[in-house]
Design brief:
This protein has 119 residues and is mostly beta strands. The chain is 0% helix and 54% strand.
């Protein structure tokens, strides 16, 4: 069982920046791909950014160029650097760790951290 704890959320003005962190209770190194999701009020949860064990990254179109996902396997931590934030980025952000190949996928979720972009 892997536990994930997110932190770094808060209230920020439009155009501002935040860095989210997700610390895993165990080794994620070569085992887990890591994903940041978000869920805005009244909307479905959506993938924001992913980083594979190889370090290859992928971003949702609306955040590409503004957000950066990176991982520090030595500390079992994945980060999401968010720049040039807009009100549309307001959501609860969740960390996800996954391993395996469909349909045999094992995944874990954090409890989420609130990000509010407002003037």
């Amino acid at each position: 069982q892997l536990q994930l704890v997110e932190s770094g959320g808060g209230v920020v003005q439009p155009g501002g920046s935040l860095r989210l962190s997700c610390v895993a209770s165990g080794s994620i190194g070569s085992l887990y791909g890591m994903v940041w999701y978000r869920q805005a009020p009244g909307k479905q949860r959506e993938m924001v950014a992913t980083i594979a064990t190889s370090g290859v990254t992928y971003y949702k179109d609306t955040v590409r160029g503004r957000f950066t996902i990176f991982r520090d396997d030595a500390s079992n931590t994945v980060y999401l650097q968010m720049n040039t934030l807009t009100p549309e980025d307001t959501a609860v952000y969740y960390c996800n760790a996954r391993r395996g190949v469909y349909p045999d996928i094992t995944q874990y979720w954090g409890q989420g951290t609130q990000v509010t972009v407002s003037s």
